[in-house]
Each structure stands twice: as structure tokens, then as C-alpha cells.
Amino acid sequence: MAWSARDIPDQSGRVAVVTGGNGGLGLETVRELARKGAHVVMAARNLDKAARAQAEVRSELPGAAIEVRALDLGSLASVRAFAGEVLEAHAAIDLLFANAGVMATPGGTTADGFETQFGVNHLGHFDLTRLLLPALHRAGAGRVVTTTSTARFAAGPYDLDDPHHRRRRYEPWEAYGYAKLANLQFALELDRRLRAAGSRVAALSADPGLSRTDLQPTTVKELPGWSQKLAARMVRWIGQSAAAGALDQLRAGTDPSAEGGTLVRPRWIVRGAPVVGGIGARLRRPADLEKLWHVSEREIGEAFDVPALAGH
């Protein structure tokens, strides 16, 4: 029997943080968690859009416990302010969905000077997870679910000595693949370090396949060209709904049998029911995972000491 939203266990009494919860996969994740009784923190940069999303869910689920908080993953100051607010309101966090992201953006930098896609998709979530890990530890068997993409296979030159593409020509889709590979590798290394520290917190990754969200229209608008239009059309033709795409991260976050260090993806790669998928040896080389961790610490200017943060 294919896993579906009906299989999500009761989430009453649990706190979940969903980045990018005001649209696409994030909104569907918020909706289903709220349906099962979780208290959901909807983290979003666009607060007007978040308020509309909150109202939409509450119109369907009048008792939904959803709080909206501002988070701009392109600013470490915003990440740290958000984490401070959440920790003040919630001593323990059961689920963190590192879901938000940007896709194939024109060349640019974040408020901290990072290449936009690597900064928003990876470094912002790296720092947020560091800050929230003590609360995840206090929850007991907390989970961190990081959203990756099949674009990780098109990462291009994966040069961790040049994470911001300053020494080579910037290619939007290669940079997107680079950032989504970093998302996968962060989840793998985080889980390894959690296990080594004896923590009950688990880290998993989720791939939504080709899902119809507002990312594709945004990319076409910001990065005009035939390849972008073709990619958007392919998603419309063979992709799945955002609700279906969100099932991969929902299973990773809530299925009691899901194990840390695994990837949940659609059965047929681009669409289908969520299943545990393999991760090739090339994508999980220990030296790459460790180097990404150290590069990320250097960029955010803080040590991510898992044993200390997990109370060991």
C-alpha cells in the first residue's frame, strides 16, 4: 500500500518549524501537519503571503495551530533573530523542515555576500539547524528534514574551495544543483555526527521529484529563455502536484519507521508515492561531506558543534 497523508501519525502536542511554509511544498507540509494536530511555526520572508496561507489553512481547518514568523534565509541576522524568537516561545521542537529555497536565480549575493542559491538554500538552513538543535534535542527523538532535488545530479563542478562561484562563470542551473547537493550532503553529515554524539535526533533528506510549485514561474520570470520555459512546461506535463511532492518530506519527518541518514523520494524519480531511495557513493564521499561542513562553519563564522549542542 502506497504511503499517503492518511498515514501521518497523530502530531498532537508536537511543534514543527517549516521554512518557506507560505507556498508550494511548504504550505502543503504545514497543512498536513496542522491537520494531524501539530503546532506549526510557518517561517516565511513574505509575511503578507504567509498571512494569506495561514488564513487558507484555517478556512479548511478552523482549529489549526499555526504561528507566522519572519525569516529571510538570505540574511544570517534574520536567521538568528528568528531562531531566538522561536526558542523563546518553544523550549522543545520536534520537527524542523528545511524546505525553503530559490531556484536557478540570476547571479547575485545574499546580505552576507554569499552566492544567492548556496546562501539561501544551504547556509541559511545550516545556521538555523545549528541554532535550533538544542530544542530538537530537548524534544527527544526530534527530526531534521532537508529538501534536496534531482538537480543535484547536474551540480557541475563541485568545487568546495569556491562555493560562491567566484572563480568561474556563473551558471544558474549548475549553481542550483550545487546548492541542492549541499542540502543532501548536509543531511548525511548531520545525521552521522548526531549518531556519533549518541543523540536521538535524526536527520533525513527528501526529494519532491518534479512538483508544480511557484518556483517554476518565478524562474521563467527572472531568468528568461527557452530552456527555462521548456523546463516549466515539462513540470506541467509530467510533474505532480505540490501536495504529492510534499509527501516525501512528510514521510521523512513523521513515519516512525523512517531512519536517519536516508533519502525519501518519489517511486518513479520524478513522481509517485514516497519511498526510501538509494544515494550513490559519489554523492556521499566522506571527505566531501566533512569538507562541506567545515566550509559552512567558516562561512557563517560559527562552529556547529553537534555533541555540545545536543547536550553530550
Largest sheet: 8 strands, mixed
What is the tally of helical segments? 10
Overall spatial form: globular
Instruction: Indicate the radius of gyration in whole angstroms.
Output: 18 Å
Main CATH class: Alpha Beta
Counting DSSP E segments of at least 2 residues, the number of strands comes to: 10
Layout of secondary structure:
Layout: E1 15-19, H1 24-35, E2 39-44, H2 47-60, E3 65-70, H3 76-89, E4 95-98, H4 116-138, E5 143-147, H5 172-196, E6 202-206, E7 211-212, H6 215-222, H7 226-238, E8 240-241, H8 242-254, E9 263-266, E10 274-277, H9 286-300, H10 306-309
Please describe the structure with a list of short key phrases separated by commas or semicolons.
two-stranded parallel sheet; Rossmann fold; alpha/beta; globular; 312 residues; 10 strands
